[in-house]
Amino acid sequence: MCCIGYRFQTNLAYQAERALEYLIARLNNPAKKPFGKQLSESEVMLERVARSRVEIDAARLAVLNAAATIDKYDAKRARKEIAEIKILTPTMLQTVADRAIQAYGGEGLCQETPLPELWVAGRVMRIVDGPDEVHLLQLGRDEVVKGRWFLDKINGQLAAAVKLSGQGILRDPLELNRRGTHQAKI
How many structural domains comprise the chain? Predict the structure, then answer.
């Protein structure tokens, strides 16, 4: 994916990594002990760190997947992957930056940390790279097109299940004594 968009999306993951570094530094600051307890001992804060790590890594993998798809085929065939990263990465940056801002409290909103700037960078990218709604709409349209194929596939599986049952009556696999005639329509 040799385009500017790849660099922007990768840069957003890098910025989210910075926000996570600030969050972790705050949790380990010995001077900050709300309620007499280190922030790094808080289960809520540990969950925020873990979720941030998962989201950053997922976004990076999505960007790499989009890049690989573009390299293998072209940007037109990677439309779904491109839309996904245009939705995912800026939102992820905002979420991770917001978690770090929460850990800092009022200090997280001032210019002493880069956190407000990181949050704004995510928000700006959600607009300048095309509003989320546009990408979501296109992604939804592209997915719904597959509907007939999925419907035929599921109906085929249901018909095969009825045929295998021998009598057209399916039994409850959980043995809850439920019986019913199967309708192969959805």
Answer: 2
